[in-house]
Every structure is written in structure tokens, then in C-alpha cells.
Write a structure and sequence with these properties.
homodimer, 394 residues, 2 domains, four-stranded antiparallel beta sheet
Chain lengths: 394, 394
């Protein structure tokens, strides 16, 4: 009696659930400390101290009604102004509160964007490997996700194939950099070329094509690598940002959308996104954490913790003969599996109590994602098992 | 370049926006204290002190990662257990955490329910007058909202017409009691009869029909009037609850769904609602406020404040010759307009700086909604204008 669309979703998710259950089963047998769960992209670094201080300050200085009450569906005006100014300071943009809509995390923001833009059968292009939820987000509004195959040399987008896949039905392109699952940052060169292709195709087809930039990992970039701000290269950009990783607040569901005034149909997009926020049932981003986020725009989680994990895991796996690109951001390593069938590899790993996600979940078979947002000790303890796994296969 | 569906939404919402802008314009000319804005259902009573205490306690006793991290999409297990027990204590039900999914307010919960249940063209029945957002919530999943015309004698549902409107395509019925906009509580007799009709029709058509009970106002019942718990009368019930009004936390977006184990296809509904929570982009209800809600299940806003407003406004308007049912719950008065065209009446009221919502927004023309969640003083100051308005019309 559930809907046909949800029947498919329930069926698909039972695979993931099975893996989750298997993890619990292994933990029951061997003890949680002896199961190496690299399957979840769940921040393990504490929120910065500023978060707690911000909550306490707000509770002390504001009237309860002003902390927990309704506001405009787009969010508090002062919060949006503060965020706009912060982006302007960092990237030399010229946003105001009228370019910002507070969202229920990036997931909520992306749903609002797709609800705003998509007619049934509109196409949205993404580059494999990609965050698997895009399939559902686009399907929610009866759009079609078009996948550009991976460039496994450096995991920058495959722009030649991209060019060929743009059609008059292409309504949007969604990118995610730093990328889940590869950790790769799309270079300035990539963004410049991608923008040129989009402008060319807009002209050719007489259409507007929006570049949606999904940015939950923007602040998680190592070695001071720059993450280009896409609206500076392409006017029809819409950005979906989240504080989930930058402040380790994934449970609080707080983020924002940016729609530049230069974007085609800007006024209608802002109006529609505002209404979509309401009618999809978000109504508004959680109110207390709107204020907390505004107070913590310069606070950062301990990136060094993730960086240590990255170095340890990357060096270890490379030494054992695993092949992967050294990630520049996020907290994932995307590793080529020493046997072709990566699902089989995941099963072999599971026998050593290592839990991984197969690359097919991200549209890129032959690889696995290792989420290293775990304790340093977990990586130390897991490395010998990775080594043994490689030796076994060889 | 926005979607066709959203174009319609933007167009419709411009009427409401015009009213909102008019309110701001009037406030600019006459001063905010001389504009009587009865148009917004925004709680004006402070959250109970327990809310602040709960936040402080949680910040002190829990690790940050446990407060702000991810959890199961359905919400924290201990929170769901506490809520289930609280419902059981109050209503003699037998729920466990497996019957509860935490939601982003009632709006988020209802979207999750409709996403879970509706195939395109499925029908959802509601009783006028009804909360206008149901139109959008059902349309989001391509369902059809079927409206039973109002019973203006006592604003209990018109069950004769209801019976006729149930078809094999009826997937659900949505009720809202205490009701927005009438403040009427559906009686036990109503719920019993409604349940009988549903069971009869399920048998006749060989279908399952879900009764969705939208309950943001459950705790706002005056004179100890009982609000029947619908799952006790009808197995195929799904409840959408919100803490927005009971704890005056509308901005925090916290509520829950209840799916009784007896409901048809219970297991699939729970699985699908869990996934729908994720793929619609809610991911989970805001984490800190899940814990806050669980600690404040017995806390209550100052109902007496709303009650004083109710008495003052109801007595005043009745004395001037306005006709309305004395509301038993929520914070709305639904008043028959002394002239037939209620939009015209709203315009006359606006000339006296009184802002109201026309009944047509709730599928019930010839009436206006007065939201009395305002300062007592606002009602005192507005009453002479209501009197003058009636005299003018006569």
C-alpha cells in the first residue's frame, strides 16, 4: 500500500541496510573496537568550542520568542546578511541577504533547488563518481539524472563526454567539490572550461542551464588548496552549502542556498525557492542554529585531525600496492580495487571486519570508498588487515 | 525558467504577499502598535522555562558529538522510546520506538507521509474548512485533494457528503483537530462515525484508506476538552504531531509521526517513511531539539494566556453581533462575515487597520479567520474597530 516509487526505494535500500546489519552483527561477535567501519560519512571531529559558546550567548541575550519563533521562510534577515558579507569577504562577490535562503542542510537545499527548477523529464547532468542521493533528489521531481562517465586518471570531470551529453532538455548540472567519494577538488581550470562549455551550449540551444554546486565539504580542503567559487566563473550558478562538516553539526540540519542576482530568472527563482521551502514542509531552517551558524562563520573544526588520518591511510595503502588519488579535500579515499569486481572485494574486506562502500553506489564500479572520518586508532588497527587483504588477493 | 508547477505557486502566493506588504505599509503609516494583525498563526506565548533548562542540561551533560551528530534517519532511539511511553501513558496505547519517526515539524511529517503513500492521481479527502497547505502537500506527490464541503452548523465534518466522496482511488483522509481555522475539536462521536464509514468503504472497495491526523494543536484545548486519540478508533491511522505550538518552538521544526503496528502494510510504511525522510532532504529531525522535546513532554505553554484572548475576543465580537462558534482549541476564531463576500469584508477591515485571512483560503468562503495569538492589548485596542466595522455595514 506504499507508493510504487517508494517500493523501489525500499527495495534498493535493503542492500545498504543489509550492510549496516552486517556491521552490527560483526560488532556483536568481535567487539565494536575490532570492526573497522569505513562506510559512513559521519564527521568524527568535535564541533569547535565556538558552537557551544554561541548557543549559550544566544540563550542569555535573546528573548525565547526571538530564538525559537517563526521567521520569513528564507530565514532571519540579519543571519542572511551576515552570511552574504562573509562570502563577499572571502571570495570578492557582492551578495546581499536577497541572494541567500537558509536551508535544512545541503540535502534540504538541493531538494528546494530541484523543486524550483525541474519539470518532468528535464535532465540534470552529473559527473561520476557522484553522491548517490542525487538519483533520488532528481527523481523526486520526475527529472532524469544523466551521468557522465568517470575520468579515472585524476577524477576531474570528463568534459569531452560532458559536452556531448548536453541537450536542449538539460536544465542543470550538479557538481560536488571537494568531492564525495574521491576527495578531489575540481580545479579552477576545470571550472573555467566547464563554464565555457555551458555558455556555448546555452547559446546553441537558446536555453538557460544552471550549474548547481553542492558544497558540504568546501571548508575541508587540505594544504591550503583553493576551492574555486563557481559563481565567479558562471552567472547561472546556484550554490547549496551546509555547516554539517565545517562545524560538525550534521544532525542539526543547517545550511543555505545562494542564488546570484545575475542568474537568469533570479527573482522567480528566489520567490519559488522561498515557497518550495514552505510547501515541501521544511518551512524554514531550524531557527536557533541559523543564529549559531551566523556566529560561527569563522570557526572551524580541527582539520588537522582529518589530515592525520588522510596521511596515515594514504601512505599505508599506497605502500601495500593499493592505487588511489591522494585526496585534496573531504574525508574520503577512493581506491581502485585489486580485483575487478568491487562488490566481491567488499565481501573479502568484510571477512577481515573492514566495512567499505562499493564504487557502484557512486556510479563508478571497480573502486571502493573509504571514509576516514574515524578514530586514528581505527586506521592504525585496520592497516594490517588491508595489507593482509592485498597479499591474499595477490 | 522555474518549473511550471512552481509558476502557479508563485502566482498564488503573490496574493498573500500583497496582504503582508499591506500590513507593513499600514504599520509604516500608523505605527505597528496601531495595526491589528490577526492574520498569522504564530505563537505569541513564550516557550515554557523547561525548554531553556533542557538545552542547558543537554549542553552540560552530553558530548557535543552526541548532541549535534547524525543518527538513524528516524531519530534517536531513546527519544522515540520516551515519546512512545508518554503517548501510552496519556492514551493507553502500546507504542514503542518502532512506531515513531521524528520529523521536521508537522509540515515535514505530512510531506513524508504523502511521499510514502501517494501514487499519482490518488485521492486524499479533507473537510472544509482546512489548512490551505494541504493543497500543496498533496500536489507535491501528484495526488488529488478532494474537499468535503463545510458543515457550518458546528464545523464538525460533514459525514454524509464524506461517505459519497470516498472512491476506490481514495488513499487517505486528512483531519486536523483542534482545527485550523475554526478552533473546533472533532468529537469522539465524530471520530467513531468517521472510522465506521472508513471501515465500511474499505470493505466495499477492497482498499486500505489511511486516516492522517494532523495534530499541531493537540495540547491547545480549553476547558479540559478531550481530543480523542484517533488510532484508538481506527487502525489505519497515521499521526503527524508537532511541538511548534505545545512548546512554542515553531522555528525549530520538531515533531514526529506515529504509525501504529496495526496499520495495514505497517513495516513497509515505516521503512518507506524512514527513506522518504532521507531522500526529501530532511535526513533527520534537528538533533538537539529531539532531545529537548523528549525532556519537555510534560511541559506546557501558558494556555491561560490564549484562553484570556479567546474569552475577550469571543465575548466582544458576539456582543457586536458577529456570529461564530466558540473555539474549543487552537488559537483561531472563524467568524461569519456580515456581508456575503468575505474578501470584501477583509478589505473593509483593512481600512480600520485590521488584518484577517479570508475563509476561501481554507475552502470556506463567507467567513474570516482571526488568529488571536496576539497581545491581549491588541485585542482590547482592536475591539472598538470591530464594533465600528459592524455598525458601518449595518
Amino acid at each position: 500500500m506504499i507508493s510504487e516509487k517508494m517500493k523501489v526505494q525500499v527495495q534498493n535500500s535493503s542492500v545498504i541496510r543489509a550492510m549496516f546489519e552486517e556491521g552490527k552483527r560483526l560488532a556483536g561477535i568481535y567487539g565494536a573496537e575490532n570492526v573497522f567501519d569505513f562506510s559512513l560519512g559521519n564527521p568524527n571531529v568535535e564541533p569547535p568550542e565556538e558552537v557551544k559558546q554561541a548557543i549559550l550567548e544566544i540563550l542569555q541575550s535573546e528573548k525565547s520568542m526571538n530564538i525559537h519563533g517563526y521567521m520569513n521562510n528564507s530565514g532571519y534577515e540579519d543571519v542572511r546578511t551576515t552570511i552574504a558579507q562573509s562570502i563577499n569577504d572571502k571570495f570578492g562577490t557582492a551578495f546581499t541577504q536577497n541572494n541567500i535562503i537558509m536551508s535544512v542542510g545541503a540535502g534540504g537545499g538541493l531538494n528546494v533547488i530541484f523543486k524550483t527548477l525541474l519539470n518532468p523529464e528535464d535532465q540534470v547532468i552529473t559527473f561520476a563518481p557522484f553522491f548517490g542521493e542525487y538519483r533520488s533528489y532528481v527523481a523526486n521531481y520526475d527529472g532524469e539524472l544523466v551521468i557522465v562517465s568517470p575520468n579515472t586518471v585524476d577524477f576531474q570531470p570528463n568534459l569531452e563526454e560532458f559536452k556531448e551529453k548536453i541537450t536542449p532538455k538539460t536544465k542543470a548540472v550538479i557538481i560536488n567539490s571537494p568531492n564525495n567519494p574521491t576527495g578531489v577538488i575540481y580545479s579552477e581550470e576545470t571550472i573555467v572550461k566547464l563554464s565555457e562549455i555551458l555558455r556555448e551550449k546555452e547559446k546553441e540551444f537558446g536555453t538557460d542551464i544552471y550549474l548547481i554546486s553542492d558544497e558540504p565539504y568546501r571548508e575541508l580542503a587540505y594544504d591550503n588548496t583553493e576551492v574555486p567559487y563557481p559563481s565567479k566563473y558562471y552567472a547561472n550558478t546556484i550554490i547549496g552549502y551546509s555547516f554539517s562538516k565545517s562545524l560538525s553539526l550534521p544532525g542539526e540540519r543547517i545550511g543555505y542556498i545562494v542564488v546570484p542576482s545575475e542568474a537568469a530568472d533570479y527573482e522567480n527563482i528566489i520567490s519559488a525557492a522561498n515557497i518550495a521551502t514552505r510547501i515541501l514542509g521544511f518551512v524554514n531552517a531550524p531557527s536557533l542554529f541559523q543564529r549559531v551558524a551566523a556566529k560561527c562563520l569563522n570557526a572551524k573544526v580541527d582539520l588537522e585531525g582529518y589530515n592525520r588520518n588522510r596521511e596515515l591511510l594514504y601512505k599505508g595503502l599506497s605502500a601495500y600496492g593499493y592505487q588511489c588519488i591522494k585526496p585534496e579535500g573531504a574525508f574520503y579515499l577512493f581506491v581502485k580495487t585489486p580485483i575487478e569486481n568491487e562488490v566481491e572485494f567488499c565481501n573479502l574486506a568484510k571477512k577481515k571486519n573492514i566495512l567499505l562502500v562499493p564504487g557502484s553506489a557512486f556510479g563508478c564500479p571497480g573502486y571502493v570508498r573509504i571514509a576516514y572520518c574515524v578514530a586514528y586508532k581505527t586506521i592504525e588497527k585496520a592497516l594490517p588487515s588491508f595489507k593482509a587483504l592485498m597479499e591474499e588477493i595477490r
